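sry for the spam today, last one i promise. struct tokens for design, 288 residues
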């Protein structure tokens, strides 16, 4: 699979951030999320296995240890993520090195989290069965003494039918440190372009709120700010906590963000009572 000439599949956003309208599917396919497949969005390095090397979506080679590549097949292209675990993106610098550090790869327990195959022309469900067979067969091979544990994992796909199911699973995964979720249209083919048969669900709405109090930090934030207690500008009765501030703000929040400060936050949607889901600090409103 030649990434530079053939391309890779890219996702549209599930809902328009301004209108809140769900992305319209191609003709003949069901409207998301009815009958769609949901999976975790991994916060690692997107990597296409072309049968010889791992490549970025732009075609750049990711240098990887020879023992790691021995686990991969040479007769099928795979699309996945070089992954170190949730909330470990800062450690992913090991994938950018011109020469892979074998010790770092071993100690980091790198996983290749596979979610598709661009070289198979078949509906999504059939491609998943093929990937499962490939992973099972490759992980059964008798490894050389230096190959370690099989690093290939097939991405779990869960059939969903309602938006309630989508956000329930989104909440669970994000609370565990996941970046978000992906939705895949049933019966769809791999398209090497941005397509509405593949949708991503991430926090993307934003709004303003007023700081009305502070919550003390715990764990690594003991003695610092844990979260801002806020109320929405449009509905002052709606109160909630926002986090996501950097250490500079957490250390000097009373001076930089006194009570009454207006801040912008991002969120993924609203609960039935109007409370923002997963609100995160974005910036402080500048004085006019």
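last one done:
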């Amino acid at each position: 699979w030649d990434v530079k000439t053939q391309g890779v599949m890219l996702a549209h956003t599930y809902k328009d951030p301004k209108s809140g309208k769900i992305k319209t599917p191609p003709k003949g396919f069901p409207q998301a999320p009815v009958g769609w497949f949901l999976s975790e969005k991994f916060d690692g390095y997107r990597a296409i296995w072309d049968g010889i090397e791992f490549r970025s979506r732009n075609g750049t080679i990711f240098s990887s240890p020879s023992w790691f590549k021995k686990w991969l097949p040479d007769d099928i292209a795979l699309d996945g993520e070089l992954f170190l675990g949730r909330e470990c993106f800062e450690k992913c610098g090991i994938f950018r090195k011109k020469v892979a550090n074998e010790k770092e790869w071993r100690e980091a327990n790198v996983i290749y989290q596979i979610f598709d195959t661009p070289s198979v022309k078949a509906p999504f469900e059939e491609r998943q069965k093929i990937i499962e067979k490939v992973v099972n067969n490759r992980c059964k091979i008798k490894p050389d003494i230096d190959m370690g544990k099989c690093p290939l994992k097939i991405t779990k796909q869960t059939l969903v039918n309602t938006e309630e199911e989508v956000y329930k699973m989104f909440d669970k995964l994000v609370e565990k440190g996941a970046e978000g979720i992906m939705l895949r249209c049933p019966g769809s083919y791999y398209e090497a372009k941005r397509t509405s048969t593949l949708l991503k669900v991430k926090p993307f709405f934003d709004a303003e709120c007023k700081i009305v109090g502070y919550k003390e930090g715990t764990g690594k934030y003991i003695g610092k700010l844990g979260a801002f207690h806020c109320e929405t500008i449009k509905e002052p009765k709606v109160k909630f906590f926002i986090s996501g501030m950097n250490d500079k703000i957490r250390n000097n929040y009373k001076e930089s963000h006194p009570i009454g400060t207006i801040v912008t936050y991002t969120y993924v949607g609203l609960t039935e009572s109007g409370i923002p889901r997963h609100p995160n600090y974005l910036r402080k409103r500048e004085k006019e």
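The chain has a mean pLDDT of 91. ok im logging off now
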